[in-house]
Specification:
Chain lengths: ~35, ~200
């Protein structure tokens, strides 16, 4: 998958990045709440 | 004799030499986005230096970043990527109504994002010169805002062309390239929002 080849792949990469960042934010917030 | 007549029929300069198999406008956008990533990288370096290396509080004491409003703005910008994808999917299927409605929606959502961002600057309560944190806040969000403005100009051109009957299921490269750019702008905003407003 190449996000710079066409719009559809770029849109798919956007969704993946949103998902990954949501997981990162959730982990950071959980760690902050626990510590 | 036949080869000579074929050569004689050709008018204008010879086609430009292309060393890449990638379509030239797409390759241009690829190189442009590569340079954009480096620009944002420089700004993020300053952000992380101020926040992590220098151990400054984020945001500065006595200030607050409006994460709720920015969260709504994030949803608006992500929605604009969705409508842009709808517009492109529509033209691939030959649906001109979907193309036009998708482009108008995308432009309206992008413009709404920019207006809310400007309104946020008016009411945020600190100025760029107040602190290092304020400087990088305005720099990062302002750099992104400038990209949204450029993206809106591209979207306006695509929308006007769509209403003038351009694009077809076979020929819509003029939409693909601005589409890639707009999704890149959204990706950068999600990263900026996470770093500046959430974490």
């Amino acid at each position: 998958m190449n996000p710079l080849r066409n719009e559809a792949d770029a849109f798919r990469i956007l969704l993946y990045i949103v998902g990954v960042l949501a997981v990162i934010v959730a982990i950071v917030l959980i760690v902050r709440a626990v510590s | 004799m036949e080869a000579a007549s074929v050569a004689h029929e050709h008018h204008g300069p010879p086609p430009a030499h292309r060393s890449s198999r990638v379509h030239a406008p797409t390759l241009g956008m690829l190189l442009f986005i590569g340079s954009e990533v480096m620009i944002f990288g420089a700004f993020f370096t300053a952000y992380f230096f101020i926040r992590i290396v220098s151990h400054n509080p984020w945001p500065a004491h006595g200030t607050k970043v409006p994460e709720a409003v920015a969260g709504v703005n994030t949803a608006i910008l992500l929605s604009s990527s969705l409508t842009l994808h709808w517009a492109l999917s529509s033209i691939r299927r030959g649906n001109r109504f979907g193309l036009k409605a998708g482009m108008v929606s995308t432009f309206a959502l992008g413009l709404t994002f920019l207006i809310i961002q400007i309104n946020e600057y008016i009411h945020v309560g600190f100025a760029p010169q107040d602190s290092a944190q304020a400087t990088i806040f305005y720099s990062l969000t302002g750099l992104h805002g400038a990209h949204v403005f450029i993206g809106l100009c591209l979207l306006a051109i695509v929308s006007i062309r769509a209403f003038r009957g351009h694009y077809s299921p076979e020929h819509h490269q003029g939409m693909e390239v601005p589409g890639i750019y707009w999704h890149f702008v959204d990706i950068m905003w999600v990263i900026v929002y996470t770093a500046v407003y959430v974490l």
